């Protein structure tokens, strides 16, 4: 790309940057936790329509994706889980096609009293925008949109098909991105601006969610010795799972991209509930856990080992050995994905284009990172032969309180993205 | 009491026994868990009215009892917590007055799939009546009622004031019995047929309910090492509380009535809840615990020690040491009570009357028991100078699944109770 075009694109992002932050602020004010994404998706759909894109908004049907690789089990069917895809068609398709993907769902805010300001009343302070989902990843959706706007601002449009995807379910299954594949959306590359500090993600771990249902032998606490406490029975199981976590993280088990990461695979006891009455020995408890796996680690084998560890620990409990815990999967059964292993010419070209865009924007070379989370990139990379570049802004406290995203970082990501689109897709005049 | 009267009373209970079990079956079908006692109380009130008693049914007002000794803290005020008391007045008061007390509230049924048959569809099988609350303690309420019926059946009535109490809140605070005291109900003795295997309870432990609120530092699980898991943080606190439990149960700390009981004081982790999202390090958890104390053990000192143990354990946690758990009391703050320590002539006389009644019914001497639970007896014994005799039928799996009470045991308890009333209150002809 010539220097002059590059400079015009960077300036165009600057010109629109206040509007971009306004857009992000409004988008963040939609409390789009799982099941509540409708108003945020309507906002996205209307933004795409205004820009002249052809908008496809549909309800996910589990039947369409249940038998596809990468599907994660869900409880029941989907109600009101809607994806939005806007399609840009060039007058003449000269360049390579592109998917700009982002997820609209955000994780729960948690206890509101632990936030300095309400999570869905976003505000800017000291160069950061605060709010649940601001970083993870509505800033990415805004960046994708305003990168296209910047081109239009200077009378240009991508010279290839561009699919703008706003998907649900990224935070629990990935079935939103999978449903886009099922609907036939394909391109030469995908870009996902998840908030990983302006680095290119070369590798991401896989994630397994599992529930452990424990039973106990209830009794009046007066006879607690004769009962079996279904809450306390969980404690040795948690300890055994941490031992497994320790083994899986051992140096000899690591994927090369995580060779120097001491603890890439985290076990999380994310939720627990149990018991009905303070003076009754509890008859039941349910734990929701998350465990990570390396790219290439087999999900089926991982599940088997998780179950074995749980059963073995349970056999040490007088009551549980005759009433083994039940392990239920609903939520992530996500494989790891390593872009670093994609040596195809397309991947090499896409990474090269992003390298150039980042350098032109920041004056620095693009850093690589192997991340300890999953993203929807796996669907493109593993199941659609499409290199997926995860590259997004700097955010802090994602999934925590006072989640925030840095404004200048959003600006840089939007600029790089606009340059990347112009390079990858080529441009044509409006 | 002459032999002939005794025989007539025993037969009268037999004559009415089928009706008693019918009554108990219907009473057990009312699902009178905390807050849902209204239909069961209406049923009791109408049974008392039918029998010509003067019925007092009232809504507990926390303001009436809040400053009384024995009050247990509650969340908010009471809504729809109604006590029922039926009063029998003799034509001529010759004997000693009596309170026949029982509680109408039952503990939650727990997961329904763990019951062989629905908990509130009581049924008789192999000599037992099954259902939540059948044993704890609707059989006792039925026994109290049909003991009076048996006297009436042979043309007699107690020759003293008898107060038939059906109270709420026994399973969580005792504030129902306390509200009866506040309303002025007093008598020379009280009988409470709680299901302790036809033994006379000489001593009962005290109970403290406490909630522990833990905070954590939430984060995306990808960075779990930087967060603080509010669920797992509970584990060392539970361990520390078990150490305290062990100390409190040590031989040198035991009340004499529990000298040979290795473990009278049980700690129960009864309920737990925590976390909002499987892939977020949980920011909060809440535990509901129950700990017992010996008669004579000071509640205030016990609370202080519980808090100290929790804070000390929390200080071992990098995050919690700067964000100590909150300990909240709502529910039992119940002192222990030892009838065995009441050497008053009234207590001696009441126990003697029950000894005789039990012997006449069963041909065996009345066994004594020190129990590891609390009952409403403490209000009469500790705060109203009224000896309270806890003496009721054999039940199994109270607070558990398939709770049941033995029919022949109910018959014997009803017979002993009728004899006891005739002896203690005297009788007059109708």
Automatic annotation (TrEMBL), chains A, B:
Asked whether the keyword Metal-binding is assigned, the reply is yes
Cofactor(s) needed by this chain: Zn(2+); Co(2+)
Q: In its keyword annotation, does this UniProt entry include Membrane?
A: no
Q: Which domain of life is it from?
A: Bacteria
Ranges annotated as spanning the membrane: none
Q: Pfam families from the entry? A: M20_dimer (PF07687), Peptidase_M20 (PF01546)
Q: Which GO terms describe its molecular function?
A: hydrolase activity; metal ion binding
User: Keywords on this record?
Assistant: Cobalt, Hydrolase, Metal-binding, Zinc
Peptidase M20 dimerisation domain segment(s): 204-315
InterPro entries associated with the record: ArgE/DapE (IPR010182), Bact_exopeptidase_dim_dom (IPR036264), Peptidase_M20 (IPR002933), Peptidase_M20_dimer (IPR011650), Peptidase_M20A (IPR050072), YodQ-like (IPR033687)
Q: Which family does it belong to?
A: Belongs to the peptidase M20A family.
- From the Swiss-Prot or TrEMBL record, give the protein name: Acetylornithine deacetylase
């Amino acid at each position: 790309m010539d220097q002059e075009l590059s400079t015009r694109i960077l300036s165009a992002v600057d010109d629109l940057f206040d509007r971009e932050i306004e857009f992000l602020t409004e988008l963040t004010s939609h409390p789009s936790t799982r099941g509540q994404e409708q108003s945020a998706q309507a906002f996205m759909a209307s933004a795409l329509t205004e820009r002249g894109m052809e908008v496809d908004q549909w309800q996910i049907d589990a039947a369409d994706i249940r038998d596809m690789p990468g599907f994660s089990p869900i409880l029941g069917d989907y109600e009101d889980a809607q994806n939005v895809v806007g399609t840009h068609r060039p007058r003449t398709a000269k360049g390579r096609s592109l998917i700009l993907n982002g997820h609209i769902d955000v994780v729960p805010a948690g206890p509101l009293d632990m936030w300095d300001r309400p999570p869905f009343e976003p505000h800017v302070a000291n160069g950061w925008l605060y709010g649940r989902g601001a970083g993870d990843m509505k800033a990415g959706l805004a960046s994708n949109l305003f990168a296209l706007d910047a081109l239009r601002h200077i009378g240009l449009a991508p010279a290839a098909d561009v699919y703008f995807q706003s998907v649900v379910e990224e935070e629990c299954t990935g079935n939103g991105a999978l449903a886009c594949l099922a609907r036939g959306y394909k391109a030469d590359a995908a870009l996902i601006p998840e908030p990983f500090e302006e680095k290119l993600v070369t590798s991401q771990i896989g994630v397994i969610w599992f529930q452990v249902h424990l039973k106990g032998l209830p009794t009046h606490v007066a006879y607690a010795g004769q009962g079996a406490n279904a809450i306390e029975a969980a404690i040795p199981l948690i300890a055994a799972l941490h031992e497994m976590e320790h083994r899986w993280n051992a140096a000899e088990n690591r994927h090369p991209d995580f060779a120097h990461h001491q603890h890439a695979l985290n076990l999380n006891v994310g939720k627990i509930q149990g018991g009905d009455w303070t003076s009754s020995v509890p008859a039941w408890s349910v734990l929701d856990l998350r465990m990570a796996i390396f790219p290439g680690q087999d999900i089926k084998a991982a599940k088997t080992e998780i179950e074995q560890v749980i059963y073995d620990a349970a056999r040490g409990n007088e009551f549980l050995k005759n009433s083994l815990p039940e392990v239920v999967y609903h939520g992530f059964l996500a494989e790891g994905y390593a872009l670093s292993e994609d040596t195809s010419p397309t991947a090499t070209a896409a990474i090269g284009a992003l390298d150039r865009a980042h350098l032109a924007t920041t004056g620095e070379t693009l850093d690589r990172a192997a991340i300890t989370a999953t993203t929807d990139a796996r669907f493109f990379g593993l199941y659609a032969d499409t290199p997926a570049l995860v590259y997004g802004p700097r955010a802090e406290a994602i999934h925590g309180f006072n989640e925030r995203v840095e404004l200048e970082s959003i600006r840089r990501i939007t600029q790089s993205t606009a340059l990347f689109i112009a390079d990858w897709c080529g441009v044509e005049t409006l």
